[in-house]
Design brief:
Length: 75
């Protein structure tokens, strides 16, 4: 997957960003924002769950750690 910080392609000769490159960059930003929102919703769901069962609690802690790792990797 390419980095969202990559510079869009510049049209040869005029130094301007092509419309297609701009559209693709916008699509990548939109997709990353959607992914980040989805991960944050999953995180909130896990944090809202209450349990006294040790195995369930361990599973929630592991899931939370995985989601937070994915969020951190996006930054």
């Amino acid at each position: 997957m390419s980095s969202a910080l990559q510079q869009p392609a510049v049209a040869p000769g005029n130094g301007r960003v092509s419309e297609e490159a701009r559209r693709q960059a916008d699509m990548r930003r939109t997709e990353r924002a959607r992914q980040r929102q989805e991960l944050n919703l999953q995180r909130e769901n896990i944090l809202s769950q209450r349990t006294n069962h040790p195995a369930r609690r361990a599973a929630l802690v592991a899931a939370l750690a995985q989601i937070e790792g994915q969020i951190e990797a996006m930054n």
